[in-house]
Amino acid sequence: MAPATAAADTLLPIELIQEILLRLPVKLLLQLRCVCKSWKTLISDPQFAKNQLRRSPPATHLILSFTSLSEKVTLRTYPLRSVFNAVTVTPTVLSSPLRNQNGFDSVVGSCGGIICFAVEQSPGFLVLWNPTIAKFNTLPPLREYDLSDLVCGFGYDSATHTYKVVAVYSFQRDSVCETEANVLALGTNMWRTIHDFPSVFLLPESGKFVGGSLNWLASGAASCSRVIVSLDLGNELCEEVPQPDYGGVHVVTVTLGVLRDCLCLLSHGNTSLDVWLMGEYGSKESWDRLFSFYVEEPGYFPYTKMLCHSEDDQVLFEFSSDLVVYDPMDRAFTILQNIDEYMTSEVYVESLLSPCP
Q: What is the pTM of this model?
């Protein structure tokens, strides 16, 4: 007698089966490929992977890289729901896809379940990796540059339905600023030069992908003020993104991030830290200050990175050397005690998308 699942496969329309499968988590879908040939074909279809991703939340997991005394790098992933609920969970240890490497030096970003890592050896190179399906793609190196001299970004071009990696060489000495930008579209295996990239010095932070664009903080050669430079991944043109009206507050430094699929900004004053959200990308009037809190030590600005927010609007931060959850309702920080010292972090969504062309 044929298995019940196979019998159901012959009785139900393929369209209905697809609708049911699209509602299931990725880990279960990977197991269900073994049910029958038609299910395996359906779940392995790249279009099915894209449809599944559209139904997924922006981020579901947190990946961290740890280093031991032996300098061996370990990658661990945590469900975000458990992180926000402060529940002690056992993380999943991931196997590095690079057999001859202990691990990755830095994370560039994540998009569609694919994480972009930088490996700063000689020559340095970038890796696209989907840890959920255990597939990776090593990109050709930019041999003219050391990765430590580059500021990178990773995002999706919806016009061509292509993932793109951007690497920008940005160097400033005295009043002279030199910039060269290169882009690689997934599937082409070659770098192209982006012409007319502005002559600005990009600060050493990976580009934040939002609104179809990569966004960096930069300073012009003739000014110490910070600007937000945006690269549209569709037409590969740059423009400046307006900043919020800080209301006369003396802003010492700012940090870019992404929250609620919107560009966000942390502005450090002498005694305060404000979190701003740009509700409509590119619109200065849409900047809204979500919350602010005082800095106990005036002039002290620990490295701060916004990672994501929960359904009840709690925010996960990198604050100094800790991962903390901020609850705006009671204005309280909670340090995640079950996470040890780490090297780098990124949030991602589980997906079936392959980083290989």
A: 0.89
